[in-house]
């Protein structure tokens, strides 16, 4: 029999019927302990959670980890998306390599985990010469940290020289056949559809404006063949929505359908400028949307129609987005920003702290096609974040769950993945944070020296 651990008497738990905590066994939630009760079966260990508010582990559904090398880069600050990306792309293409990418991935994953994240997806689309093994690097780094990971194999196959709407320099793109062959390789090596899997794979042409229709269609066919997910950027800006109509003579959602992407396998980053018909169509087919509030505000891209999309049946998840358009990897901060921008768009009654937390947990899990994480319930994976309310910011807080969002929690005290402690006392196990900061900062200097 698996060892049973009682997470006992937390301040609060984001689960119904778990007032006295939960029992973990074999990497899963084995029992919820309601008020006035004790575990039904004997336990082997007790963890006193009297200092903690317990939530499901947060799930990050969109990121660009390599971009942490160019945070607050002087060439790109104080710009909206298109001037920003055209300013910064040459630095990425020329200077991102296997060595600094490994540090960028390690730093990003560490930051995510410290912010309460237990599962992540990184939309990595940059494969200059020498970085062909980017997916392998991410898989290795996630395994070392104990972070659950969807390896999202991105791609670019158009440059601005070939298409006036594309923005990638020539050194950033790959041939379609090379891309598809590597997609097959990564799926074969890492895609695990078993319950509780630590690694899965998604296929992710970067965006319809900088990849070919052939690549969109071929990745859809591969995803169907191997039972994996699909991901891309879509209508992050109004220009992209107009582009779909001008170039393809149809809406962005119709273009997805034309490419074989209108399926519940797919989730989309941003999804800001969908019209009402597109919202209904996406909901009808169960296409997910990753809301990236921090990046959308930083680049002044717009406000995602979260409430209309969710009402139509679209799973809504959260993502931190790029390390150079956020410019951090804190998913709990994104939860708070989702609440604030949601209230600005709608009103205080329409978007609650529970909505924002649901998007960052259960909604994100649905975007990744996972029903084994995202909630605290019997049979689910024991992926949980433990938050202390000891900081001054929480003094006087009456509702401990609401306080996490309204008072601005940003660092988990403990994080558990698959029943194993991965963060203790705010620090990831086995990570020298000082050394990581030094090595990453040293590697990033090349991007500044190139100015």
UniProtKB/TrEMBL annotation:
Keywords: Hydrolase. Pfam families: Amidohydro_1 (PF01979). One of its GO terms (molecular function) is 8-oxoguanine deaminase activity. It is an enzyme of class 3 (hydrolase). Gene3D superfamilies: Metal-dependent hydrolases, Urease, subunit C, domain 1. CDD domains: ATZ_TRZ_like. Its EC number is 3.5.4.32. Residues 53-421 form the Amidohydrolase-related domain. InterPro entries: Amidohydro-rel, Metal-dep_hydrolase_composite, Metal_Hydrolase, MTA/SAH_deaminase. It comes from the Bacteria. NCBIfam families: PRK08203.1. PANTHER family: AMIDOHYDROLASE-RELATED DOMAIN-CONTAINING PROTEIN, AMINOHYDROLASE SSNA-RELATED. Belongs to the metallo-dependent hydrolases superfamily. ATZ/TRZ family. This is 8-oxoguanine deaminase.
């Amino acid at each position: 029999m698996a060892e049973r651990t009682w997470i006992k008497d937390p301040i609060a738990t984001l689960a119904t019927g778990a007032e006295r905590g939960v029992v973990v066994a074999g990497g899963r939630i084995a029992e919820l302990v309601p008020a006035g009760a004790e575990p039904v079966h004997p336990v082997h260990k007790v963890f006193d959670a009297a200092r903690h508010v317990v939530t499901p582990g947060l799930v990050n559904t969109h990121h660009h980890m390599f971009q942490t090398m160019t945070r607050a880069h002087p060439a790109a600050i104080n710009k909206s998306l298109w001037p920003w990306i055209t300013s910064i792309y040459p630095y990425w293409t020329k200077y991102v390599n296997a060595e600094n990418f490994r540090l960028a991935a390690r730093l990003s994953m560490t930051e995510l985990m410290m912010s309460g994240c237990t599962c992540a997806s990184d939309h990595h689309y940059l494969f200059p010469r020498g970085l062909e093994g980017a997916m392998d690097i991410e898989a290795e780094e996630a395994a070392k940290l104990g972070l659950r990971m969807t390896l999202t194999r991105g791609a670019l196959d158009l440059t601005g020289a070939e298409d006036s709407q594309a923005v990638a320099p020539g050194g950033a793109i790959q041939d379609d056949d090379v891309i598809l062959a590597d997609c097959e390789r990564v799926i074969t090596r890492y895609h695990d559809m078993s319950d509780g899997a630590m690694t899965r794979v998604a296929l992710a042409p970067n965006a319809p404006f900088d990849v070919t229709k052939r690549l969109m269609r071929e990745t859809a066919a591969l995803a169907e063949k191997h039972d994996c997910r699909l991901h891309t950027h879509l209508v992050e800006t109004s220009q992209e929505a107009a582009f779909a109509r001008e170039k393809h003579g149809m809406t962005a959602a119709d273009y997805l359908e034309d490419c074989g992407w209108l399926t519940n396998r797919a989730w989309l980053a941003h999804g800001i400028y969908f019209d009402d018909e597109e919202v209904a169509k996406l909901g009808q087919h169960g296409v997910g949307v990753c809301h990236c509030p921090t990046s959308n505000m930083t680049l002044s891209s717009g406000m995602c129609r979260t409430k209309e999309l969710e009402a139509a049946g679209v799973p809504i998840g959260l993502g931190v987005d790029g390390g150079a358009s956020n410019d951090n990897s804190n998913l709990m901060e994104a939860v708070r920003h989702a609440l604030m921008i949601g209230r600005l768009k709608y009103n205080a009654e329409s978007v609650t702290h529970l909505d924002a937390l649901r998007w960052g947990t259960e909604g994100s899990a649905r975007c990744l096609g996972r029903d084994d994480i995202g909630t605290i319930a019997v049979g689910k994976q024991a992926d949980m974040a433990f938050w202390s309310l000891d900081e001054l910011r929480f003094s006087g807080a009456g509702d401990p769950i609401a306080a996490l969002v309204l008072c601005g929690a940003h660092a988990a005290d403990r994080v558990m993945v698959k029943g194993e402690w991965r963060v203790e006392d705010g620090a990831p196990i086995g990570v020298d944070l000082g050394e990581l900061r030094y090595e990453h900062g040293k590697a990033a200097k090349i991007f500044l020296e190139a100015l």
